[in-house]
């Protein structure tokens, strides 16, 4: 067994066996009496973590025309939820310690539903306020779900993480492909097309409600990880997470508008985005497995980022006859970049506590950085009146992600450790 494979195995065992030394009650009865109900609840919750982001983009031109939004304001609208993913992520552990993770997930699902209603019903002010509320809700739940998976499905953590990731992609694909047809069905009303996605959030809350009454453990031992913000490798992991996420949210926020500008209808553009996201289901599972077969992850990072850039440039510049091929290429690349970003957090950490803190840093700082990409696309489009110049944004972000990834992909650990307090 080579050193990297051995370290990977050790880290996976540490994460799987985190109950032995983490903040979960030890030597307690089984925490899940009806695991199928928890599994169903987790899937339904995960399905709701992307529709608020991917449902708007196919209707963005229609919403902008209806409310008189400039391209800069539209760019801010696509940026705001992503910014909230980073800004509100640190609230998740604070709320969980105070109220319990299950209660927080339930409450935030209802907050997400409220944000979706708000942005679809109260004009420009409601649109921005609801987008902020929805983004904050997704940011908080997104931090809590992986911990619940690790705690209650410890022996199936890898498989459950795969199911969780697939549910995320499926939710994004469903919203991207069906929002425009829904709005057309209900009399060309973009308000109903956007507001529809509060229903899955309410359904998820109903199925999650039984978890609130269960005792899933308590926090007994506190750990401290010091020096992470001064560690160069931690910043390389964070930058890779943020830069690849920036391209992902540019696609969620602007790809349909780009394709509509090239001559597609809103329905066609939404279906292309939906198809590209569905393809991510395959590469998000395959890329980490392939990446851990070698001595490090640098080659895999370069390959998936080149696939992503190739798909983006194809969608932007290539003849429309081959558009679906470029969309598939884009999906293969972005599914790999996202799953590798999550994998790097585990592989670069010595134990579960470092991994948790590195995850918080990578998501909090990374998603805040990622929000600049969609905003920049809106500004450039506003300045130039077209889409051709945004290729430079793709190139700069993509090259930056490769540089950061070459550092983050080395077979090293971040130079910090955890200690009890």
TrEMBL record:
Q: From the UniProt record, which GO molecular function terms apply?
A: transmembrane transporter activity
- The regions listed as transmembrane in this protein's record are 36-54, 74-92, 104-122, 128-149, 161-180, 192-212, 233-255, 267-287, 299-320, 326-347, 354-377, 389-413
Q: Which UniProt keywords apply?
A: Membrane, Transmembrane, Transmembrane helix
GO cellular component, as recorded: membrane
Q: Which Gene3D superfamilies match?
A: MFS general substrate transporter like domains
The positions making up the signal sequence are: none
PANTHER family xref list: 2-NITROIMIDAZOLE TRANSPORTER, PTHR23523
Classification via NCBIfam families: CynX
User: What protein does this entry describe?
Assistant: MFS transporter
List the source organism: Pseudomonas fildesensis
């Amino acid at each position: 067994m080579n050193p990297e494979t051995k370290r990977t195995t050790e880290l996976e065992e540490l994460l799987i066996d985190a109950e032995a030394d983490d903040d979960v009650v030890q030597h307690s009865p089984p925490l899940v009496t009806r695991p199928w109900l928890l599994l169903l609840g987790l899937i339904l919750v995960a399905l709701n973590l992307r529709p608020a982001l991917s449902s708007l983009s196919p209707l963005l031109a229609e919403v902008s025309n209806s409310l008189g939004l400039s391209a800069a304001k539209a760019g801010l609208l696509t940026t705001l939820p992503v910014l909230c993913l980073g800004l509100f992520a640190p609230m998740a552990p604070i709320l969980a310690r105070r109220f319990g993770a299950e209660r927080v997930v339930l409450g935030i699902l209802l907050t997400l539903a409220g944000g979706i209603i708000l942005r679809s019903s109260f004009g420009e002010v409601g649109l921005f306020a609801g987008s902020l509320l929805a983004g904050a809700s997704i940011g908080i739940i997104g931090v809590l779900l992986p911990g619940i998976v690790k705690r209650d499905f410890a022996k199936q953590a890898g498989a459950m993480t795969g199911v969780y990731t697939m549910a995320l992609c499926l939710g994004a694909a469903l919203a991207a492909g069906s929002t425009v047809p829904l709005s057309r069905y209900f009399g060309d009303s973009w308000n109903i097309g956007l507001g529809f996605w509060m229903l899955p959030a309410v359904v998820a809350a109903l199925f999650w409600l039984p978890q609130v009454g269960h005792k899933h453990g308590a926090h007994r031992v506190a750990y401290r990880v010091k020096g992470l913000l001064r560690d160069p490798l931690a910043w390389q992991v964070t930058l890779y997470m943020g830069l690849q996420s920036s391209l992902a949210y540019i696609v969620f926020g602007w790809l349909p508008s780009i394709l509509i500008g090239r001559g597609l209808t809103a329905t066609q553009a939404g279906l292309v985005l939906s198809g590209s996201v569905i393809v991510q289901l395959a590469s998000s599972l395959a890329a980490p497995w392939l990446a851990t077969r070698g001595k490090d992850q640098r080659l895999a990072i370069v390959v998936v980022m080149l696939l992503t850039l190739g798909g983006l440039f194809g969608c932007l510049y290539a003849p429309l006859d081959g558009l679906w091929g470029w969309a598939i290429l884009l999906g293969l690349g972005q599914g790999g970049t996202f799953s590798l970003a999550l994998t790097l957090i585990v592989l670069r950490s010595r134990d579960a506590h470092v991994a948790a803190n590195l995850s918080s840093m990578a998501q909090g700082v990374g998603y805040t950085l990622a929000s600049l990409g969609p905003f920049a696309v809106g500004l450039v489009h506003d300045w130039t009146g077209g889409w051709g110049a945004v290729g430079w944004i793709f190139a700069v972000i993509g090259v930056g992600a490769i540089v950061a990834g070459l550092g983050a992909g080395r077979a090293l650990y971040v130079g910090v450790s955890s200690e009890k307090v």
